């Protein structure tokens, strides 16, 4: 019991993000990508009333694992924050294109909530493992690689999808996601990938909706005609 007292468990929202193609950049381009990602995350966080300075961060060169403070409402993070991040990436890449940059900033993002405890090298527990395995999932990587117009590939854990996305309080509709099952290091991880790119479109963009609540813009709430929906039948949850 002494160990439990020294290392209490906390139930938190975790976010992992990674830059695509980071190793292909030279040193100055890597530094620029880091700054661009940090700025985009800051802007998206401010858009939902959050301060990233209060987040616990385990930082790597091409991304970070963030533990959000206790008491954060997960619905705006799972929806409005992601829509804001997509918008910030669009603006960043528009400016990069005008400046003649070799690379756009394209990222993968995963979200999960669960238990963890603080450790000397970062958070320990199942929750950090789940969010990282989903971030590295093959279907998420392939979604970004196979859709050159997409700047953000986003996945939520199965439990967060049920507890948050499906409630109707999230700005991204459940119909915009597709369930996937991935196996990594002998364990199975289930999540839901946002496959409807129109769900992240700006006002007046593809799908004709302003943000995520109308992202599934087709008839009957399905993906809009301009959305590219990617199927992963071999990994679909069964």
What does this structure look like?
- This protein is α+β, with helices and mostly antiparallel strands and 238 residues long.
- Helix content is 32%, strand content 22%.
- The protein is built from six helices and seven strands.
- The chain has helices at residues 2-6, 27-47, 74-98, 126-135, 138-146, 158-163, and strands at residues 10-19, 56-60, 63-67, 107-116, 152-157, 177-184, 187-194.
- It has a seven-stranded mixed β-sheet with strand order 2-3-1-4-5-7-6, sandwiched between helices.
- Strand 6 and strand 7 form a beta hairpin.
- Helix 2 crosses helix 3 (74-98).
- The protein is globular and about 50 Å long.
- Mean pLDDT is 85; it is low at 205-238.
- Residues 204-225 have a biased composition (Gly residues).
- Residues 200-238 are annotated as: Disordered.
Average pLDDT reading: 85
Oligomer: single chain
What's the gyration radius in Å? Answer: 17 Å
Alpha carbon gap, first and last residue: 39 Å
Shape: globular
| Strand percent estimate | 15-25%
User: What is the makeup of the main sheet?
Assistant: 7 strands, mixed
What pattern of helices and strands is seen along the backbone?
Answer: HEHEEHEHHEHEE
The number of helical elements comes to 6
Biased composition (Gly residues): 204-225
Region (Disordered): 200-238
């Amino acid at each position: 019991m002494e160990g439990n007292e020294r290392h209490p468990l906390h139930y938190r929202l975790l976010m992992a993000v990674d830059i695509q193609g980071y190793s292909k950049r030279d040193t100055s381009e890597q530094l620029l990508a880091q700054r661009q990602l940090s700025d985009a995350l800051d802007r998206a966080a401010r858009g939902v009333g959050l301060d990233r300075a209060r987040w616990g961060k385990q930082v790597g060169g091409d991304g970070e694992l963030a533990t959000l403070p206790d008491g954060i409402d997960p619905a705006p993070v799972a929806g409005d924050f992601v829509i804001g991040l997509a918008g910030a990436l669009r603006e960043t890449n528009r400016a990069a294109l005008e400046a003649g940059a070799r690379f756009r900033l394209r990222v993968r993002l995963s979200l999960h909530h669960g238990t963890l405890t603080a450790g000397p090298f970062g958070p320990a527990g199942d929750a950090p493992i789940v969010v990282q395995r989903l971030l590295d999932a093959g279907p998420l990587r392939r979604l970004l690689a196979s859709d050159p117009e997409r700047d953000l590939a986003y996945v939520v854990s199965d439990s967060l999808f049920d507890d948050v996305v499906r409630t109707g309080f999230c700005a991204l509709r459940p119909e915009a996601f597709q369930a996937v099952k991935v196996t990594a290091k002998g364990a199975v991880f289930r999540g839901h990938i946002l496959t409807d790119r129109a769900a992240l479109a700006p006002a007046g963009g593809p799908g004709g909706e302003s943000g995520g609540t109308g992202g599934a813009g087709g008839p009957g709430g399905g993906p809009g005609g301009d959305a590219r929906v990617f199927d992963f039948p071999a990994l679909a949850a069964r």
